[in-house]
Amino acid sequence: MTPEFASTAGMDRLEWLKFRRKGIGGSDVAAILGLSPWNSPYSVWATKTGRIPITDQGNEFTHWGTIMEPILAHEFQAVTGKRVYRQNKTYYDPEHPYLRANIDRDIAGEEGFLEIKTATEYKSSEWEGDQVPVPYQLQVQHYMHVLDRPYVYFAYLVGGHHFGYKRVDRDQEAISIIEPQLIDWWEQHIIKDVPPDPDGTAATTAALRALYPEDDGEALSMDTSFDSLLTSREELKSSMESSKEATDAIDNKLRETIGEASAGETTNWIVTNKANKRGTRTLRIKRKKALK
After folding, report:
1. DSSP structure class, residue 99
2. pLDDT at position 239
3. Where does CATH 3.90.320.10 sit in the chain?
4. Which end of the chain is least crowded, N or C, by CB within 10 Å?
């Protein structure tokens, strides 16, 4: 299937960020599948539905990655003899136009394309031999589906001094698993606007803090299912084998349920989520005292 495309050449940064919200790009794939160290299904939902304001705040990794991209593209050309160029296009699947691809560079005279990555020294093992970090594997398999391309090259710099490149071929078996999940996720959570269940990741916590930055001083009554949930949390906290992410997932479910309220109560528990002097909301959980 031949992909369609929209030109991004005339877009300013804000227009581009708004445009990104209208589909599933490469960096969204691992997050939607629960395999991203940076984002989560819940944080992607909150962003794509416009609940979190658009900001152009990156971090030092994205900043230096942007600066290094043309340098590494040039090095790839010098080492391989291939010529690469920008497309300034967003490609999309004509049947499911929210499935999108924004490649770093195309390769002249070839069916493949180029993706450019930087990594810190302590991530070097993820690039050894034929290895590629899982989020990037998912990204390019998604791109190859949208573009209907057979392979991609990665050009990468590890630790600021080790340059390498490698080819990754299309994996149709993986694509046949990934793409239906992305389609189902978009239709269930974006088109129907049903939030995914909050998990215990830092990305979900950050999204909930952005969604509900202030409390309104009200207390709400929480249904009885939260009694068993809070009891499970208490048991997890007292267990040496418990996962922090499991308790964080419960905490995020509580944050989502309380929303803008200051507190919530069940038959046996009081949960508050009030702003401190710095304006940061803090979740506190207390079991009610039994009546004598």
Report:
1. B
2. 77
3. 4-191
4. C
